[in-house]
């Protein structure tokens, strides 16, 4: 099975004074603005790294749901946050890390099993496999 999804970007102007807009195939983002200031100066608006963070958090959480099901477990709730790090390097900028923080309520799960299953999801979700970065995880099983 092969699935293709698409996103697009439009840019006008120079790096610092230019303006861009991003769109997704689903329409969840439709000409949503982004630019230098939203990426590097903390100005509100989107940027590629936050989109990667959202993709990683959602992919990891879905992968863990699958892995839990295979272990006979179902989460009543999982909340995942991803923080993607963009760093200046000698040859430009690179995404160097993605840190996942998970809080999950899973009836019947013990912490050791939960940690093993979460680590499996971290290593094997498709977005983790895509990223050439240090991927870390803090997983907390809530009672």
Structural features:
single chain, 143 residues, alpha+beta, GMP Synthetase, Chain A, domain 3, 2 domains, 6 strands, 33% helix
Write a short abstract of this structure.
The chain is α+β, with helices and mostly antiparallel strands.
Residue stretches low in confidence (pLDDT < 50, at least 5 long) are none
CATH topology of the largest domain: GMP Synthetase, Chain A, domain 3
CATH class of the largest domain: Alpha Beta
CATH homologous superfamily annotation of the largest domain: K homology (KH) domain
Percentage of β-strand residues:
35-45%
Structural class based on helices, strands and sheet pairing: alpha+beta
Question: For the largest beta sheet, what order do the strands appear in spatially?
Answer: 1-2-3
- CATH architecture classification name of the largest domain: 2-Layer Sandwich
Q: Estimate the global geometry from the Cα principal axes.
A: elongated
Q: Helical content, roughly?
A: 25-40%
Total E-strand runs: 6
Give the ordered list of helices and strands. Answer: EEEHHEEHHE
